[in-house]
Amino acid sequence: MSEEKKDRKVVIELQDVKRDFKVGDETVHALRGVSFKIYEGEFVTIMGTSGSGKSTLLNQLGCLDTPTSGEYILDGVPVRRMKRSERAVLRNRKIGFVFQNYNLLPKTTAVENVELPLMYNTKYSAKQRRAAAIKALEAVGLGNRLDHKSNQMSGGQMQRVAIARALVNEPAVLLADEATGNLDTRTSFEMLVLFQRLHREGHTIIFVTHNPDIAQYSSRNIMLRDGKIREDVENTNIRDAAAALAELPAPQDD
Amino acid sequence: MSFANLIRVAVKAILNNKIRTLLSMLGIIIGVAAVIIMMAIGQGSKMSIRKELSKMGTNLLSIRPGADTRGGVRLDPSAMQTLKVADYESIKEEATLAKYVSPEVTSSGQVIYGAKNTMTTIYGEATEYMDIKLWVVEQGDCFTEEDIKKSAKVCVVGKTIVEELFGDKDYNCVGKIIRFKSIPFRVVGILKSKGYNNWGMDQDNVMIAPYTTVMKRIAAQTYFSGINVSAVTEEKSDACIEELTAILRKSHKLKEENENDFTIHSQQEMMETMSTTMDTITIILVVAAAFSLLVAGIGIMNIMLVSVTERTKEIGLRMSVGARGRDISRQFLIEAVIISLSGGFLGVMLGYLGSYGASKIGLPSSVPLWSVILSFTVCALIGLLFGYIPARKAARMDPIEAIRYE
């Protein structure tokens, strides 16, 4: 670990996190003791094949689930013993989710979709909520698509709305689950350009994927296998997604 | 989530599924409309009976000399002489809940004009009797207080007597002299016809004269056969009875242990009997309609369960971005309540329309306000009750599974 990191704030800390599931009479060990720290401003990819425990880890990081043993500290808050409703509030304040299949509300405009997390935060008035949503949409380059409904947008646009929704509550960490999985190559790169920009702007991003190519564009890679960390390396040679996008063959008009 | 937001979200969800919502509302609409119409017809029938009865004065109380025993023998009430002028005067002075008071002395006999005669009853009354029994003097005037003081031989007559004595019921006989038991009476007024009452009695075969005249010149008695009182309002009838009882007991100097030597009946007693019958019929009809509301509630629950399953992904998403179980359950509860309340609202409108239609085809019907309030309350309860299970199902979902639900 590099020296400069030591002074930075720890956003996520896992201490020997284990997660067992009971399937019939057998116990499945999905996570077998995972420990790492993620510092503010990192762009981390978590990779692994299916069955490696990366979904389970994502659920832990997203406070959707709690460890069987060990401890998970999110932005200074220990999560393991929290109640369901407390974790819901924690998610609302500290986490921004981006899902593979966007998960936008149907028949709902972009702004309303982005407003959704703030609906569950009574500190925001309707006015503040809308203002924050518009700001987030502008940040992902959709300032001109505010009132488009989800069925009137392309996949890339929908994923941008989803990213805006994840950013709107100014989360401690952005959790992306195969966020480029449903997109074509070109749009995937556009998304990576956006994530890299957000990274430069200081956002902490965790990108869970099975696609090893994406690792080249992040600042750190964690590789999971059989519920354990197999590799955790700094990426010293981060590729620029914008450059990669420019190298792609021009889109063909048909 | 704040209440305003919950309502906003619920309304949006409902509008996203207009036809389905309308269909599940239909049960509530029909149920509520049925309840409203049943109640309206029940209430309308009751009111029409009441109207019939009120022609006789609904707040009418009648004091009669009561059963008294002398040496163990119960005496015939009409032979009793307990109601005196003093009683009448103390009632007039002291009774605050009595609007009109009139003593009554009656006598039956032949009334004669020229060569014609007929059998009738003469009522000796005070002028207030007209107000108590709601008589209207069509021609001429009622006799006056002055006539009562002087025991003047004047009377007002009903239409039947006019017809029998003068051959034409529209004949204006004001000023003519007729004889009752050979006493000449000058007709000062003719009463507007009331027709037959519910018991088949001709209410127009009547002569009304000052009570003093009848007491002195015809019956030759110092007591009344009764006193008629009208209470200030129908609702105050019972209180008025109590007040009159107290006054009469005092004026008769009855001791604590003595029985009343008079009885007081109210017109209400009879109306209550009739109302009870109508109420029973109404209750049966309303219960039948209420069952349709129950079925409608189950319909709403069914549609809400479908809706929860259908929106599993949405629920998962909402939970991921910070909705607590209670936010989710409230959202679905409010949705169910809005559906049932709007159904209730439309049902009430339809009920009003149906009630209007019923009155057009001749059924007496009037929508009681409380049935509207009751319908809305029941609808809100149905929404809460039948929305509860779907809402709980939604709130208990696991966000991890819900968000990946296909």
Can you put this structure into words, describing what you see?
The complex is a heterodimer of chains A (254) and B (406). Chain A is an alpha/beta fold and 254 residues long. Chain A has 7 helices and 10 strands. Chain A has helices at residues 54-61, 84-94, 110-119, 126-139, 155-167, 185-200, 241-247, and strands at 10-23, 26-39, 43-47, 69-74, 77-78, 95-98, 173-177, 205-209, 220-225, 228-234. In chain A, the strands form 2 sheets. Chain A has a 6-stranded mixed sheet with strand order 6-7-8-3-9-10. In chain A, strands 2-1-4-5 form a 4-stranded antiparallel sheet, with helices on one face. The mean pLDDT of chain A is 90. Chain B has 406 residues and is of the alpha+beta class. Chain B folds into 2 domains: 3-52 and 273-403, no CATH class; 103-230, no CATH class. Chain B is 55% helix and 18% strand. Chain B has 13 helices and 12 strands. Chain B has helices spanning 3-15, 18-54, 85-94, 129-132, 145-149, 159-166, 211-219, 237-251, 267-310, 312-320, 325-360, 369-395, 399-403; strands at 60-65, 69-70, 73-74, 98-113, 116-125, 137-140, 154-157, 177-180, 183-191, 206-210, 226-231, 262-266. In chain B, the strands form 2 sheets. In chain B, strands 4-5-10-7-9-8 form a 6-stranded mixed beta barrel. In chain B, strands 2-3 form a two-stranded antiparallel ribbon. In chain B, a hairpin with a 2-residue loop joins strand 8 and strand 9 (183-191). In chain B, helix 3 (85-94) crosses helix 8 and helix 9 (267-310) packs parallel to helix 12. The longest helix of chain B is centred in the C-terminal third of the chain and has 44 residues, at 267-310. In chain B, 41% of the residues are buried. The A-B interface holds A 59, 62, 64-65, 84-85, 88-89, 91-93, 97, 99, 103, 105-108, 116-117, 119-122, 126, 165, 169 and B 1-2, 4-5, 9, 12, 16, 313-314, 316-327, 399-400, 403.
